[in-house]
Amino acid sequence: MPSLELDDIQGTVLRRRPDDYQGAYLLYRIDDPAAAKRSLREVLPKITSAADWELPRPFTLNVAFTYRGLARLGVPQESLASFSEEFRAGMAARKEVLGDLGANDPSSWNPPLGGPDVHIGVMIIARSPAELREPVETAGRLAGVSLVYRLDVGVPVTGREHFGFRDGISSPHLLGSTCEPLPGQDSVQPGEFLFGYPDESGAPPKGPVPDALGRNGCYLAFRQMHADVAAFRRFLRDTARSPEDEELIAAKIVGRWRSGAPLALTPDHDDPELGADPMRNNDFHYQDDPQGLRVPRGAHIRRANPRDGLADTVVETRIHRVLRRGAAYGPVLPDGVLEDDGAERGIIFVFLGASLSRQFEFVQQVWLNDGDFAGLGAERDPLVGDNGGTGSHTIPARPVRRRLTGLPRFVTVRGGEYCFLPGLAALEWLTALPDPAGAPAATPHSPNPEDDR
């Protein structure tokens, strides 16, 4: 069993946020690298490690950096070159791989996302709005930087994400993380998600150098994703035969009923008690459902985590696991409303891992935006895929399968960034770097992110 250095690992890697939460995602541009490093040094005691996450803390605070941010702080060229190609390029430049085309194209992203002005990311989660005030004020005291983005998040009044589903049920368990895995939760080597530890191959993954910078760090992919709840409701109404059928279709799209109860365990009706039970709601497999009669092979959760459903193929699912964090933002669309009210609502998706290409980008490109791996041809993820009115989703059934057509785009990418989340010792190393000679001033954001690459 690997021994993890919990006091050096930023807490969000190993610990999940509470079910009841308020939070803020803050992005900064570095204007004065020397002043920024001095003020970051003062914030270090406030950053939450995995060791003190479970204490009765009123808030958690974690800090990450983009490639441009690390360069602005004076990270040596040799170290910058040791980061992965996709991290150095940035998320917007990877749009072809990620399928960020059409309405999802970076040219339509909310500024400054995808542009040159995002250098530091601060993630804060608290138990209440009152307890959020202190860490936001702490982050606001950072010197030498300008706040270029803020998005407040919080649990919706329904306790579920905006499409109405209970969220955050399934997640891999890191060996050595002290907590016990829940039934159905697969355990993976920590090196799949953290530098400095063995991954599933038995060797540590190649990370940034020197070790003082890379150890206990990981990559972080941040995406703001707008949810078109009205379009989802209209599609269900126009497709279903009855209100009960609406719920069944919604479950067949996601792979779970709205309560969180998995179709794999209760394929014919919802079971809220099962959905709320962490000892049962994730304890299932797909190998005994090869045709997808219970959980369609193209359902969202089966795509994002095929479990043992690909056991007879050459794909090793354990090396493509995604450690997901995130939160909801925006007001809830009232029940029964079928027309969009113009409000911005959705989720902040945060991926954490040791490989952006093998984990985040692979899942996005192969499992979510394609169907060949599951024998579904050009079908995409019915919930988060880039469908745009032409998508389809096959629901196997006896005697006749059901095929949903004309799937609209339910989720639109508003922007995103690739970041590096260092260990706490690496944060100290970063703040002690000498200032780069003749550090250029930060440039203003261009309206078109493509102009900045």
Automatic annotation (TrEMBL):
Extract the Pfam families matched here. Answer: DyP_N
Keywords recorded for this protein, A-Z: Iron, Metal-binding, Oxidoreductase, Peroxidase
Q: Which domain of life is it from?
A: Bacteria
**What is a single cellular component term in the Gene Ontology annotation?**
cytosol
Q: Per the record, which residues fall in region Disordered?
A: 180-210
* Cofactors: heme b
Q: Which GO terms describe its molecular function?
A: heme binding; metal ion binding; peroxidase activity
- Where is the DyP dimeric alpha+beta barrel domain positioned along the sequence? 8-132
- Family of the protein in this entry: Belongs to the DyP-type peroxidase family.
Q: Which NCBIfam families match?
A: Dyp_perox_fam (TIGR01413)
Q: What is this protein called?
A: Peroxidase
The species this protein was found in: Streptosporangium nondiastaticum
